[in-house]
Design brief:
This protein has helices spanning 16-25, 40-44, 47-64, 81-104, 180-192, 211-223, 277-280, 316-331, 360-366, 381-386, 414-426, 432-436, 447-452; strands at residues 2-10, 30-34, 109-113, 116-120, 123-126, 129-138, 142-144, 172-176, 195-199, 227-229, 236-240, 243-247, 256-259, 261-264, 268-270, 303-305, 344-347, 353-357, 370-376, 392-398, 404-410, 456-457. By secondary structure, the protein is α/β, with parallel strands linked by helices. The structure holds flavin-adenine dinucleotide.
């Protein structure tokens, strides 16, 4: 027999629980379904555990640099991976349990554990149960892409999920993919003590960033001993004794890399392939992402898709913002839209990259008249005092309206400092608001007004990194 609810939420990632709470608090009878780990990717195999491990790696790095700061540490530095893992497990586990107990204790909300699958546009099965609702919210997230590569079958490769379970140091970790996930793991494992090689198909790492940022990130990693193979085509694998051989048919350099472990970090794919979307009539695009409109409605009335599975974000904050948008539209008569948000994210290499809005390349391509300001972190007092002077910051503004078009801060504190720029962008206020604001000394943010006082026209070659 069907159990009828006012709303069903499939998945307990970064959008589902918050939306479930909003709907339940509004008096709706809500069912929420989770097939595996409460909290989804971010909590269990993504942001939280990876940033916890980045913190361990940073500690190891700083101990190695202790003498630079006058701190005496005569012994060799080694990392106990069992402790790194147990610290990560404790922090991630606490978060997972927090989500589960929050949902289980939520009034008007019933938790189902199992794989949810549409039987029709209003029915979802979980095991032997059949649930029915007029409103269904899909928050199923994604998983690591495993690309078709020669020799991949039978290879004991790691993904962002399985690498969370290891408590030893790989002798030589070969990372396929030089995007955000690959770069974070590369620096982290190098700092733990592994040899690390990034094998990247594209001609640069972090290829969606401006070239100056890609180059600076590559240099930061290479200075720490991470090897980077760019333009790697026809990637394949074979075994040689205990070793794994990665065949990288690169334009130059050694055509083979030999290592002990392989981490695949070549992208993500949505968990939409076993969801009964055809029975529900929900349209997906070529890559399996659920097609949604600006208010996250799918092709079927009464069904919404939130978070990574709709292809409109790919971050925890975009998934959470999706829940806010859906909740505002349904419950507050507030027509919030996905297109209201400004691109913003961070890349947690050290020093981190904080990004907001358009890239310099996008602005150049748009042909609009713009101004650019740049400042190397070596000219930021706070960075000098901390002994962390790698990177630079830049900001682009519209030459006519003076609105900020985009910014990047690759440097210590960049993930935080970017927010003062982001908030002014949301306010659609001119850059002069930041320029005239009195900022606190000594901070990274205090140099934003200085940088804005040195804007120059964004023409070919102008404002090149110093
Ligand atoms: C290594 C790594 C590091 C990351 N770091 C960051 C970061 O620093 N900052 C950031 O913003 N983002 C980061 N991300 C991305 C972030 O984790 C995701 O964007 C975010 O978790 C997406 O949330 P979501 O709600 O869309 O889905 P998810 O968090 O993936 O949750 C989906 C949930 O749905 C469940 N599910 C799936 N199918 C079904 C089904 N049929 N029935 C029932 N349940 C189902 C899954 O088990 C899962 O619990 C990182 C990702 C990775 C992999």
């Amino acid at each position: 027999m069907n159990k009828t609810y006012d709303a069903i939420v499939i998945g307990t990632g970064q959008a589902g629980p918050f939306l479930a709470q909003r709907l339940a608090a509004a008096g709706m009878k809500v069912a929420i379904i989770e097939r595996k780990l409460f909290g989804g990717t971010c909590v269990n195999t993504g942001c939280i555990p990876s940033k916890t491990m980045v913190a361990s790696a940073y500690a190891a790095h700083m101990v190695r640099r202790a003498a630079d700061f006058g701190v005496v540490n005569n012994g060799p530095v080694s990392v106990d991976m069992k402790v790194v893992k147990s610290r990560k497990d404790a922090i991630s586990g606490q978060s997972r349990m927090g989500v589960e107990s929050w949902l289980r204790g939520m009034a008007n909300c019933t938790v189902y554990q199992g794989h949810g699958r549409f039987e029709s546009s209003k029915e979802v099965s979980v095991g032997s149960e059949r649930l029915r609702a007029d409103r269904i919210f899909i928050n199923v997230g994604g998983r690591a892409e495993v690309p078709q590569m020669a020799g991949i079958e039978g290879l004991p490769y790691l993904t962002n999920s399985s690498i969370m379970n290891i408590d030893f140091l790989p002798r030589h970790l070969m990372i396929v993919g030089g995007g955000y996930i690959g770069l974070e793991f590369a620096q982290m494992y190098r700092r733990f003590g592994s040899e690390v090689t990034i094998i990247q198909r594209a001609s640069r790492v972090a290829r969606r960033e401006d070239e100056d940022i890609s180059t600076a990130i590559r240099e930061i990693l290479e200075q720490e001993g991470v090897r980077i193979r760019l333009n790697a085509t026809c990637i394949g694998f074979s075994r040689r004794g205990d070793e794994i051989v990665a065949h990288v048919d690169c334009a130059s350099g050694d055509p083979e890399v030999t290592g002990s472990h392989v981490l695949l970090a070549v992208g993500r794919r949505p968990n939409t392939d076993d969801l009964g979307l055809t029975q529900a009539g929900v349209t997906v695009d070529k890559r399996g992402y659920i097609v949604v409109d600006d208010q996250l409605r799918t092709s079927v009335p009464g069904i919404w898709a939130l978070g990574d599975c709709n292809g409109r974000g790919g971050f925890t904050h975009t998934a959470f913002n999706d829940a806010e948008i859906a909740g505002a539209n349904l419950l507050d008569h507030d027509p919030r839209k996905v297109s209201d948000r400004i691109t913003a994210y961070a890349l947690y290499v050290d020093p981190p990259l904080g990004r907001a809005g358009l890239t310099e390349e996008e602005i150049r391509k748009s042909g609009r008249r713009a101004l650019i300001g740049r400042r190397p972190m070596a000219k930021v007092g706070r960075a000098v005092e901390r002994g962390e002077t790698q990177g630079f910051m830049k900001i682009m503004v519209d030459a006519e309206t003076h609105e900020i078009l985009g910014a990047a801060i690759l440097g210590t504190g960049g993930d935080e400092a970017i927010h003062s720029i982001l908030d002014v962008m949301y306010a659609r206020a001119p850059y002069t608001v930041i320029q005239r604001a009195m900022h606190i000394h000594p901070t990274v943010s205090e140099l934003l007004p200085t940088m804005l006082g040195e804007l120059q026209p964004l023409s070919d070659g102008a404002g090149a990194p110093q």
